[in-house]
């Protein structure tokens, strides 16, 4: 027997972008259903690990430096207006996490909270709690299989299958937010094996446009035989060949292709995080302790001892491409359909280059919040019988 539900807004996904979309749609007065193919709060790239956040205080000089820092890497394709919007929204949402969700941000040596990083499990545990308290109905283990549309092409819900209940479900909704994550299926990067790119498929099936897919073959650096790709930490690294000589041109941002070519030539690549001073080392351990778990278990000091690294494909989780958005509310080219997080293209703030956290985490918070509010407004404009 099919489970039939009606809602103002249906959110597809269960990670940061999806939970922010559901929260903000509910806060806007919409009835919301969230359908996750896994268990909301534990599935996906963020819940498995940790992430940096593009959190910059509203000081003109700091904001200018933050925007300028990645423009060249992205081919100067990013839009400053969108960058500023994301910085504003992220600042508010991270502070909301601290003040409303009581997220336990670590404290630096100066006694100030360090709000530029999040531990995924704790972050998403609190997000799930908040979503439920907001009155959102969560459908766990309920993969969507297709979007529903009206005769004139407006997206009006989705159908899927509840694996544990062994039944089909159908949600009729005034608007749908696709926040299903990127595509890095079976990549072996932490949390990415289950990211199949299903949201991009659903969008394409109803005629939505994709954008930036030429920037989506992204790889992250990881210690050999591990799944943790904290590429930002490798800004402090020196890379070496197996004979101990420095691998010229290798680097985290601009030199990853050098590492790739060396690995493809069946040579090993080693590195040490030897460019980090004592303050940076302490900050790194505070910000992302999971990065150091493997080293601590093996008795390896990554700051002084070389360790082998590899590259893991992270597709559109780390790459910028995805569903094209056409307005400030993250609408797609199909009426009634919105996109957020890794499912949506990040070109507007990253151009052709991004990373695994920082901008991505900020984009998830921001686009999730904007799409949830916009979807609620769209559904409300259709009238009470929209679903």
Helix-strand blueprint:
Layout: E1 3-12, H1 16-27, E2 32-35, H2 45-48, E3 50-52, H3 60-71, H4 80-99, E4 117-119, H5 120-133, E5 137-139, E6 144-149, E7 155-162, E8 167-178, H6 198-205, E9 210-211, E10 218-223, E11 238-241, H7 256-264, E12 269-272, H8 278-287, H9 293-298, E13 307-314, H10 315-318, E14 322-323, E15 337-339, H11 347-350, H12 359-382
Parallel strand pairs: 1-2, 1-8, 2-5, 8-15
Antiparallel strand pairs: 3-4, 6-7, 7-8, 9-14, 10-13, 11-12, 12-13
Helix pairs in contact: 1-5, 1-12, 4-12
Strand content: 15-25%
Q: What percentage of residues falls in helices of 4 or more residues?
A: 25-40%
Structural class: alpha/beta
User: What's the pLDDT, averaged over the residues?
Assistant: 93
**What's the β-strand tally?**
15
How would the global form be characterised?
Answer: globular
Helix-strand topology string: EHEHEHHEHEEEEHEEEHEHHEHEEHH
Biggest sheet descriptor: 7 strands, mixed
Number of helices: 12
- Named CATH topology of the largest domain: FAD/NAD(P)-binding domain
Classified in CATH, the superfamily of the largest domain is FAD/NAD(P)-binding domain
Q: What value does the Rg take, in angstroms?
A: 21 Å
CATH second-level architecture of the largest domain: 3-Layer(bba) Sandwich
Count of discrete structural domains: 2
CATH class designation of the largest domain: Alpha Beta
Note poorly predicted spans: none
Distance between the termini: 20 Å
What are the salient characteristics of this protein?
15 strands; single chain; seven-stranded mixed β-sheet; alpha/beta; FAD/NAD(P)-binding domain; 33% helix; Flavocytochrome C3, Chain A, domain 1
